Amino acid sequence: MDNERAETYLRDLAESELRRWRGRDPQGEPETTARVRAVAAAFAATGALDSAVADAVVDDLVTALDIRSPGDQRVRSMVSHIRRVHWSHRAPGAVTAAGAGPISVTPVGEVLELRDGDTDIDIYLVGAIRSRLLRCLGAGVLSRPKGSLPGRGQQQRGLPPAESPSPHPGLPGVPGDLRAVDESGQSYDLFFNGQGESTWSVGQFVLGNQGLLPRERIRLDVGNEHHSVRINLTGGPAEARVTTTLIDLSAGERYLRIRAEAMFVSGYHDIGTDLAPLAALVPALRAVGGLPEDSVPAGQIAALCRRYAVACDGIADPPAALPDRWTDLLTSEYGSWLEASGADPPPAAASLPVKFPETDGVTTVLSGLLTRGRRTTVLGAFFGAVEEGYAEGPCIWLRDDGGQWHVAKPGSWGSGGINVFAANVVPPVAASVTAVDVLIISRTAEVRASVPLTWWTS
Length: 458
Description:
With about 450 residues, this protein is an alpha+beta fold. The chain has 8 helices and 19 strands.
């Protein structure tokens, strides 16, 4: 690719956007910078332009907008700072997937029933993920008024009192006094990392740092002083058969492809919002030699622009057929999820224990699915450097045994070199589904696995 041409193109684009913005409509400013940011990130990621030069062009545009913005200078300076903080095409610092050591995932399939507090609580434990840097239990937590949830199972006795009790504040409805005890008697506090509303929360119980959980440990008792359940850390089905297909595209096409996938995965934007900046990448990458004339990703973006009536200046490509997974999502009538009521069926849980091979420096691990009402969540973790918002990272799709595609949209995140997630699945997965094909899409590969599902409820 032509670096000099890339810098000239980016500076011309920034000047053009600045001329279009007159300062009369503050709401139009994000659109003014979005295309420049998108092209700068694409040039830096594909090697068309040095990242420092790309940063400088964006900074120049932000400064120019700051100068031309009406209002108090202090307010303008604060807004300018916020713009710069939110502009970054670089992945945050993280360990490599290999740095996490051996990674394992084990199905759990237990419900911890707690009836001794002010509310009735059922905790659905679907899977355990273990590595040198992470030990967590994927879970859904149902909290209902006292007397609403009858005891259905045989619970173990509670755990021995902790030497120094330390309840941990968490989401409403999530107990803060849970612990895990291994067969040696070592105790671990459980910290909940997740999302939810007043009655239903989903996420991961992360084992605290009082001590590492050795890999040779074969069981955990999880609960509080009143009730507990026992988890076998060695059991589980045979590993899912995983196939990897490498993507033979140029750097520009790979980038365009993963950015298009990211629109469907994003939990924070809609396709109509993200499509205009994405369309701006086609003429930009083609101008610096980053796209062939018969580019399939470019044709797919042209088709999306036509569908959403988004201007696609500079895209002469004829619309190309969209992947089935995109079409399924665009035509499905799933609507938005609603908080479940007491009249809804109880939650359903299924273990989904699968570890995918490393691609682009990231290892994806899934542990389970949880469905309640019109909401499904997939739990798991990314090991390795993943850019926030999936801009460069894996995208997760599920195809159920009826042929319907579902996409996972990110929910909660961890840190410290590992991204622990609870991702909303759209449309939701019904508890009648008996198997899913999982598709992980990264910049350079597609990885697939077929996993049977066995659902349970309390």
